[in-house]
Amino acid sequence: MKKLKIFAKTFWRSLTSPSYYKDILSAKFSFSLKYLYFLLFISSLLLGAKGAIGIARSIPKIPGFIENTKTVLSQIYPKELVLTVKDKNISTNVVEPYFIAIPREMRIPKGEARYLLAIDTSAVITDFEKYQSFFLLSKEFVAMKDENSGYKVQPLGEILKDVPDGMTIKKGDFNALVARLNPYYHYIYPVAYAGIIFLLTLWPLFVAGLKLIHPYSPVSLIILLFYSLFLFSLAKLLRRALTYKNVYRMSMHGLTVFVVTSTFMMLINFNLPYIPLLAFLLWMIVVVVKQEHVTSKSA
User: Fold this and answer.
1) What's the rounded Cα separation, in Å, for the pair 249 and 226?
2) Is 168 strand, coil or helix?
3) In 96-227, at which residue ranges do the beta strands (DSSP E only) sit?
4) How far is CA 42 from CA 39, 167, 199, 205, 277, in A?
5) CA angle, corner 38, sides to 33 and 40, nearest 5?
6) I need a surface site. Which of 49, 150, 200, 283 has the fewest CB within 10 A?
7) Do 52 and 195 touch, CB atoms closer than 8 A?
8) Which pTM was predicted?
9) How far is CA 282 from the centre of its chain?
């Protein structure tokens, strides 16, 4: 309880009192490190709780999801379509290009795609966008939508390497394969509950440590070296009695502003990525300005 009171006091003063930052310099480095880790732990716990609540709200919908999935999978494969595997390539018995529509049960945002699958065994990779589908099956590859690059491609040779040559796939074969999934639907419940437990226990511990050391984390001790260099340059320009080490220690506590701002924005799903960094830098400029000047004697 005493440690929680110390953390709460440190948190509030780091967030509101520029004069407090001078007191930080008399404490051990480990004090600031532990404070920053616990701050990131609390932030990760809050975000984990948000995710856990989302999972908990979805649990009552699992039976409907299972039934909906079964319905979609049982209806998705057309009766007339026959796929044949030959020499690790695919051929069909239908006029191409052939399209499989998006089932009504699948909630797809408008504009995402017109079809679930387009089949054109003579297609090249650049045809993907033309067909406006989530997947494009060609003779030698499968292309699928990808958020980062638009689409990604998987060679059919890799996918079909264990498939017997000459094998045909009909609606009955597909449905038999889908039926094998039935026993696994029961695992959705334990996975959901395990996800809730993970988000509320191991997740905050792991993420807090990762954020401290990962070079691409905006609150890592590595990135803080560069933030502090900028702030140290400002301190020298303003003739403040601060060393680089002083500024770095202060910046560790100044990250309170960054963490609070970014956490709040993520909790309310508000996405302006540079706002937390701007808030941190503005606050640290205030902190630096409020520190003591270099006297003529010490200069």
Assistant:
1) 13
2) strand
3) 98-101, 115-119, 133-137, 141-146, 150-155, 168-169
4) 5, 55, 12, 9, 19
5) 95
6) 150
7) yes
8) 0.79
9) 27
